[in-house]
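We close this part of the discussion by returning to an individual protein. The encoding preserves chain order, so positions in sequence and tokens coincide. The sequence in question and its structure tokens are set out directly beneath this paragraph:

===
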Amino acid sequence: MRLDLAAARAFQLPRRAAREAVRAGRIDVAGVTRSEPGLDVPPESALTFHPDRPARYGVRTSLSVLHEDSDCIIVDKPAGLLSLPTAEREKDTLLSRVSAYLQHRYRRRPYVGVVHRLDKETSGALLFARSREALRSLQELFKRHAIEREYVALVTGGLPPAGEFRADLVRDRGDRRRGVARPGKKGLRAVTRYRTLELLPGASFVSIRLETGRTHQIRVHFAADGHPVLGDLVYGVPGARPVVEAPRQMLHARTLGFAQPRTGEAVLCQAPLPEDFSGILERLRRRKTKALRPKPERLPKPGREKPRRER
């Protein structure tokens, strides 16, 4: 369900007023302020409305730059924002923000080439080229897997210290969603490796490296193994009780590194965990600490002796 529609129903607001409240940063989802009216949220999400909170506009121009040189720019993509427009021709995308930033900075119409992309609800480091030559070179690095990419995720259930998924993927598993190829069926080769960073109550915090870069690869592989990404409304188990209320899929592209094709300079960027991700992580850690804390021993209450009657 769209966030503006959920807010309209929860607080008896007209749809337009709910949309403006979301854009102004007056609606929180599970304690996290979200300003994207079209954000998909579960119907049971905990929403809070702060009508007196000062409006927080300027979302369309916000951009966090992690690295910039004459050939490329790496930015920190927020969750809820498209990497580039779809057939609906959305105006506010990461691509449009990068273009506006470069045009404002250099006072001329820039070239911005899309090297790769992240899902709308995935956050983290994303690379764009600033010339056609750089675009070809950077895409070649991706093709040769000469790019260092690390994702982190919170997934359902406990995982071994390390593991690997090698299941081939298909575009349609039968319900118009991507999935693992059935035995005997041809799919695209996909390899995902992970390392468990921390075991948490009902979940695992994992570091993920990709040998291939298929669409939704991480989400499909972990879900097929019975460990869907927390907050994933597409590949999660329908009707399952969530480990914790997550405002979106807890998947973040943390590290991006490569050798600059023209100069050979080493480029390595890390995108910090966003507030919604770190908030869920800390909530699970508190649960873990509470579960490990020894319970105080309860001593029996001393009985009250009845006064003796004198004869």
